Amino acid sequence: MINVSINNSDEIFSSLDLARLKPKSSLYPKFWQNNDLNTIVSRKLMKIADEIINSMEIEVDIDDIIITGSIASYNWHDLSDIDLHILFDFKKIDENYDLVKKMLDQSRINWNKTHNITIDGKEVELYFQDTNEEHMSKGMWSLMREKWIKEPKVEEVDIDLSTTEKKAASISNSIDHVAELFKDSKFQEAYDYASKLKLKISRMRTTGLAKEGIYSPENLAFKILRNANLLNKLSSLKVQSYDKIMSVTLETKTKINFNKAWNTYLK
């Protein structure tokens, strides 16, 4: 559980180097050699994926296992993790796509919470992806085919750091407000506002990706908040608020000695 504390949002940006969001001139050198994935890294990730598939008893054909995200592109940085995606057709499990996705999302969350596997200090983050789902990323490497599905390109981009910082600061202040509500024991208000804020953040990122791609201020603001652990804080506040709402404390009724009380009255 994440301890709830109220922080000045300005501190986020003093501890984060916004320049790390800018693309590099080469891929992460410890993972990529001559534009191919390091063999040790590849084998370890395949072993992790295989054990996940076997432990969950996923009895459908796996279409691919890929790594994607910043670690497979030129916009990697010191806080990049390894996005490990297992691809298959969700409807081969059940025709109810939404139910399958919800089940797999919960399994993914539980796995990521339970495990802390790192390769060269980069944490492995598990995702289940429907084969038919469009995935927006600058780079995607197939572990099964041992080749690029989408090879990243070096790009010259203009990053609007000012707008990015303003958007991240605004969301950060809102998260601080949720923390204040929780601290003041306004648990229903904290829960409702946290729910609304999570939806707002999701829509913000989706809109940014659709309009300007991964370097949009909205997506970069999301990454800043995630790297600062504020999204985890928001999720924790929502869960803790819900738990407080649903919890009940029963007061022990004071037992009255009626004989003693009556005798006292008669005196």
What do you see in this structure?
Residues 1-9 have low confidence and may be disordered. This protein has eight helices and eight strands. The protein is globular. The protein folds into two domains: 23-150, Beta Polymerase, domain 2, CATH 3.30.460; 161-246, no CATH class. The strands form two sheets. Strands 5-6-4-3-7-8 form a six-stranded mixed beta sheet. A two-stranded antiparallel ribbon has the order 1-2. Helix 4 (161-183) packs parallel to helix 7 (230-246) and helix 5 crosses helix 6. The longest helix is centred in the last third of the chain and has 26 residues, at 187-212. The chain is α+β, with helices and mostly antiparallel strands.
Which regions contain 5 or more consecutive residues with pLDDT less than 50? 1-9
Give, in spatial order, the strands making up the sheet with the most strands.
Answer: 5-6-4-3-7-8
Number of domains: 2
In helices, the fraction of residues equals 40-55%
Task: Look up the CATH topology of the largest domain.
Answer: Beta Polymerase, domain 2
What value does the Rg take, in angstroms?
24 Å
Terminal CA distance reads 58 Å
Class of secondary structure makeup: alpha+beta
Q: What portion of the residues fall into strands of 2 or more residues?
A: 5-15%
Global morphology:
globular
Assembly type of the chains comes to: single chain
The helix/strand order is: HEEHEEHEEEEHHHHH
Number of helices: 8
Using DSSP, what is the number of strands?
8
Text of the CATH class of the largest domain: Alpha Beta
CATH architectural type of the largest domain: 2-Layer Sandwich
